[in-house]
Amino acid sequence: MRDVFPEGAAFPIVGLKGSPSSLKVLNEIAPRFRRVPESEKLCRQLLDRLQFLHDSVAPLDAFDPLKKSYVEVMARFVKLLRRKPLLLRLASSQTLVFVIRELQLKLTDVARRLDLAYKAEMIQWEYQWDNDCAEQYAKLNELVTSATERMLVSEFRGGKKLQEVLMTLNSGMKWKGQSPEMLALKQVTFSRVSGYSNQTGLRMFDWFIPIDDVEDENETIERGRLGDVYRGSWIYHGERSKVVVKRLLPEVSSDLDDAFLRQLELWSSLPDHENILKLYGGSHVSKRQFYVCEYAQYGNLAEFLENEKHSGLYWQLFQQVAKGIKFLHSNKTVHGALKCNNILVGDKCTAKLADFRFCTVHTLATGLGLMTAKAKIKSVRWDPKEVLEELDESGPRHESDIYSLGMCMIEAKTHMIPFGMDDDEEVFGKILSGQRHERPEGLSDAEWDFISRLCDPDLSRRPTLKEVLDEIETFAAKEAAEMRLADFSMSRPQIVSHSSNDTPKPTKQTQQSSVCSSCTESSDDSQQSCRCCGFPLKMSDGNITRHSFATYVKSHTKDEVLQRLYDVALTLQDIREQGIVHANVIPGNIRIGRDGCAQLVGFEFSKTLDELASGAVPKREDGVRYLAPECLSGKNPSFESDVYSLAMCAVYALSREPPWGLLTTDEESKLQILSLHAIPDKPAVVSDAEWKLVKRMCTYGPADRMIIADVVCCLARLVSSASPEVPGWRLEPDLVKYQEADGALISRTPLVSRHLAQWKDAVVAVVKPEEGFFTMGRSFHSVADLWYSLKHPAIQQLYGAYDEKGMVFVCENAERGEMSSHLGSNLTDSDVWKVLLDAALALHYMHCRGIVHGDIGLHNILVTADGRGKLSGFFLSSQQDGAHPRQCSPEDEPTTEEEWRPLACSRGHHADYSSDVYWLGRCIIDAIGGELMPSKEIPSASAKCARCSMGQLPSQPESFTVEEWRLVSDMCQGDIEMREVADRLARIAAVNAVVSSRLKNISTSLPSDARQKTQGMMFAKLRQYEEEDMKRQQSDDYDDYLDCDEDCNSNAQTINSIEQHLAYAANEMFGGDNFVTALVEYDSKTWNISAVPPTHLKTPSVTWRKCLYRWALDHESIVEIKADEISQGGFATVWLGKWFGAPVALKRLSKRDQGQSLREEANLWFRVRHPHIVGLFDLSW
């Protein structure tokens, strides 16, 4: 039944995230006007009309065209009000005016058909239109002219985004019909911003299209390896045209902008031709590069010819394709990516070529060798041997297009991609070995002979393009004649005669069976999936079969099978936390990955809870043996039904037979479940403990079943009792080589000695416990477990350890040794602060993990060859109460309750987070003051607790600035968390680096306290910028409906970097001639630096749950991403960023990649540790 609402009632607004109610949306629109204050009156008029029409539209049927138009207007209006920087609002101001007027006219049409068009509330907007547009300019002029260049520029995350906005502003200056005042404002602003940001030489292109001028339809019409194709519309000089938009995937939209730019310039430079798709323009600087071309209403060639009534146009269309190729070749252009998806059919059934040479963009953007890239991309099926064999980047030739044309003919005739279901690697090998495609049905000998010559592996034997056109012309003429004859025959009366004695003779049906390629059991050919394991019967992919769960079960022990069931349970737990019901947990949807772990696939039936609540799910006809009773009764799947299905998978895996056995039919098993509330009999090979778990998972009532978290815990116990895990850190002692008898001694402390050694052909540090370690009551295994679990750029990485031939820890080598050896020597002030910052970031990471270091001192802060700090010395580290427990080695069962407890001082206090903060503050005093305070000795029972050791701090030393000493005072005498320490240290280190470099370049005489004063001035500027940004953001929040915001693909947090603010501050302070005067007159009170800046780092929750992957840490909120990517691969983009405040590389995979593939890669990568291999710190998916 269709939804009909009473007058005045709310109804859902489809098109906005979550389909919120109309009344809720109407109430929330007005507060969004603060995002576009210059256009408030224009928007207010539209909102008033929406409110006026609401009650009249509400009673209409949900599918009524008037109601659908009203809902569309409201959804587009909300998306129009998303947050945008001021400079972008100026650049796209005319587009906003056009869209609002367009929405107003749509509402006028709705009102006219409701007989409300002449109401005063509906016509008021037209009288106010010109005045409201004039006010838009007046407010924009006020806002833009009063904003500094820094404020205009600082709203953008990276130079690439700023370039895009400047191009948008340049395009906005060409808008026809705008007022001379608006044009002048755009021109002046363009000059201001481009000069300030050093973008005066930025190239401008006539074909550039701002992204806000293009609107996509919600649904893609094609998904390719390069990107997604949408139907859409394009606003150009006050008119909207239907177009096709292709947005490249993020991994193709690389920093190789020149590659994409060359293709756009090439395409736009070609003269118009009827068989070439017309390019309107695009953008090479957008986050996802895109181009806009003419709309081809009949889609791609393969889809067009699948329609039987078009099959008679086969050769005539390929004749047009060949003409298009001839035109490209005559313009010295090779298509290079010819396949049916890139041949579109437009008006009057005209074939049009598209996407030529865009394969070059993909090849360049992959960052892989050409052979590897070709093996991975789908176009390998259309590429000839010579293209796949080339090792340079010369690209395809004219003869290559001839080959691809023949493969397109095969594709169009078979209605399948070339080589069918063979995987890409097999196809790659076939083409290189010279194998030809099988002959499709429906081709005459002459036609197949012609196509075979086009696809000859030897390019010298392929026909020329002229010969191709001549032969196709012959086939096309014959085809056209046959169509005319068929049309003539169809127009004549048809006489059909038959005898009255004729009776229909039914064809005898022979029931055939198919053998499952996974478990080798037979099933009816009419079934889609195997009745035993649920594997798809039509699946022919040998690679999938080799890694199927059914194959694994037959060749591995029960203990190993239990481990794989544990993997699946963890995956179900993970998707449950995301609110997703799998709804198809069967053995056929369990795969074994390269890392040996089980992967859960087959998410085509999966639904979120919201989707399940909104309506019924289609009834399943297959996999009956694995469906829960409530699903067999027609109810929707649930988390509980997933648990039931997992139990049935366990029955199959442990007994190697499907639930209820092979002799019981699906109908019989269904009857026993629903009528008798029965469960399968206990297999003989299943233990009592295992069967008890299965029974609790498959009770008839969903409410009585175990939840998946409890299943995970029970399976964990079964797995751990069956196969104890060897610690990941255990090394072979013989792999560690010493140059001397006891290794080259680096340093020695009361707890450990450090030596140089070699391990797997790499220089490493070897740490050996000393006598002091054994007096502290800690075990070797507990230290190894804790240290091995720590992975952070500022922590000395542990590669492994052994205790067979002495106790040895093999770890990362810090070439410049302990920081204590550098006091007053070869480290500059800025270098010292950088090392101290690294130590603080490492401590922040440990505290987020719930770990107290317990031995902070300059002897445990190491310095690498490039001047970075590494925190070491985890022999007294301990887990805080309430933090998640670590996974420990099996032999490391604590011998006493005291073994993992923090050390206690004589007055009863324990070392905790605050003691780490205190001792780091003492380290700063020692490092900056240039000499050690009397506390370097090994921490004893009476000296380590911060609260017990705390005394009166000395007065501020001359080597400290006001800001630096304030931080040290807070650390040693106040209650301050490590996240704030790390954030303030980061600011101090960054400011000191800028101050040092700038003061070096000043030749005039400076006061003795120039560094302190300059730092104070810099901090005051930073505070000023932060207050300006804060005021701007307080009245401007993000859209609640995030589906319209391009920056919402990632869960990572992005913030303005302090480096950007420092660059602005340095330009303002050092750019003029008055710096020295300002320095002399400086007074810290007038510069107001007393306020403590806001902390950007966040401390995540340390709540813990069992998880298969040790790298799966939930710390998305503390990841920062810088705007411009630094590298591009075939499957991912690499960005510079920060993780727990430390500089890292962030690798973001394509959205289309399956999460399981990502987890599989991470599971392999995380376990690999070596000095010459880039380490994986963390991953979220």
UniProtKB/TrEMBL annotation:
Gene3D superfamilies linked to this entry: Phosphorylase Kinase, domain 1 (3.30.200.20), Transferase(Phosphotransferase) domain 1 (1.10.510.10)
UniProt feature, compositional bias: Polar residues: 495-508
Cross-referenced PROSITE patterns: PROTEIN_KINASE_DOM
InterPro entries, A to Z: Kinase-like_dom_sf, Prot_kinase_dom, Ser-Thr/Tyr_kinase_cat_dom, Ser/Thr_Kinases-Pseudokinases
Ranges annotated as biased composition (Low complexity): 509-528
Domain Protein kinase: 215-476, 469-718, 736-995, 1120-1181
GO-annotated molecular function: ATP binding; protein serine/threonine kinase activity
Domain of life the protein comes from: Eukaryota
Region of interest: Disordered: 495-528, 878-900
Designated name of the protein: Protein kinase domain-containing protein
Source organism: Phytophthora rubi
Higher taxonomy: Eukaryota, Sar, Stramenopiles, Oomycota, Peronosporomycetes
